[in-house]
């Protein structure tokens, strides 16, 4: 559960950073 949530947050963070860049 928490591991999946962490992966989701990391993925969202990467996508967000990529979009900002």
List the helices and strands and how they pair.
Elements (H helix, E strand, L loop, with lengths): L1 H19 L1
Instruction: Tell me the number of strands.
Output: 0
The largest pleated sheet is described as: none
Share of helical residues: over 70%
Number of helices: 1
Estimated structural class:
mainly alpha
Low-pLDDT stretches: none
What order do the helices and strands follow?
H
Distance between the termini: 30 Å
Shape: rod-shaped
The gyration radius over C-alpha positions equals 9 Å
Indicate the proportion of strand residues.
under 5%
Mean pLDDT: 93
Summarize the structure.
It contains 1 helix and no strands.
Write up what this structure looks like:
With 21 residues, the protein is an all-alpha fold. It is 90% helix and 0% strand. It is built from one helix and no strands. It has one helix at residues 2-20. The relative contact order is 0.17.
Characteristics of this structure?
rod-shaped, single chain, 21 residues, mainly alpha
């Amino acid at each position: 559960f928490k591991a999946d949530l962490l992966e989701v947050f990391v993925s969202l963070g990467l996508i967000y950073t990529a979009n900002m860049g």
